[in-house]
Amino acid sequence: MWYSQGCSPLWSPPPPFSTLPSTTSLGEIPAFFFSFPYPPSSDCLLCPTGFAANMAVMVAIGSIASLLAVGDKPLKNEKIAIFSDALNHASIIDGIRLVGRTKSAEPFIYKHYDMSHLKALFLFSMD
Q1: What gap in Å lies between CA 76 and CA 82, rounded to an integer?
Q2: How many degrees, rounded to 5, is the angle at CA 60 between CA 57 and CA 62?
Q3: 3-class DSSP state of 30
Q4: What's the mean pLDDT in 76-95?
Q5: Do the Cβ atoms of 50 and 44 come closer than 8 Å?
Q6: Packed helices 90-101 and 50-62: angle between N→C axes, nearest 10 degrees
Q7: SS3 label, residue 97
Q8: Could you give the dihedral angle defined by the CA atoms of residues 12, 13, 16 and 17, in that order, rounded to the nearest 10 degrees?
Q9: Cβ-Cβ contacts under 8 Å for 88 (sequence gap 6 or more)
Q10: Residue 84 is inside which H or E element, if any?
C-alpha cells in the first residue's frame, strides 16, 4: 500500500496519479531499503516537500501518546510534551500546533535560545 501526503496536513489516500507504475515503483524503493524487520515492506510515505515531511513527523510524534497508553485511550493527563524553539521552521511549528489540537500532545514554544524560559516551561509541564 502506498500513502501520499499532498496539500492536506492530514493523512490522505493516494491521489489518482500516484497509482501510475512510475510513481508506485518510486514508493517501493525506500520501502524496500528502509524496511525492518525483513522481508521488505511495501508500505511507504512519500512527502512532496520538506514542509509536508516535517508536518508528518510532528503528527507522528504526537500520536505516540495513544500507542503508549495502558488502556485503549490515553488518560486525560497523559500527553506528550513537545518543546520547540520559537524560531524553528514554520512547518515544525505548524505541525506542533496541529498535534496540540488533537489534545494528545501539549506544545510548549520557548523564546529563541532562551534556556531559562525552556527550563520554566519544562518545570511547568511537570505539574
Answers
A1: 16
A2: 110
A3: helix
A4: 88
A5: no
A6: 30
A7: helix
A8: 80
A9: none
A10: strand 80-85
Q: Which three cell numbers stand for residue 92?
A: 515544525
What amino acid is encoded at 126 in this protein? Answer: M
75 residue type, one letter: L
Q: In the structure grid, which three cell numbers stand for residue 81, read together? A: 510534551
pLDDT digits (tens, 9 = 90+) for 27-77: 566 666 666 555 655 566 777 888 988 888 888 888 787 677 666 676 777
Rounded to 5°, the CA angle 110-111-116 comes to 80
The confidence score (pLDDT) of residue 56 equals 85
pLDDT at position 89 is 93
What the block records as the C-alpha cell of 35 is: 524496511
User: How confident is residue 10, by pLDDT bands cut at 50, 70 and 90?
Assistant: very low
Q: How far apart are CA 9 and CA 25, in angstroms?
A: 24
3-state helix vs strand vs coil in the chain, percent to 5: 45, 15, 40
Output the nine-digit C-alpha cell for 45: 510515505
SS3 (DSSP) at 43:
coil
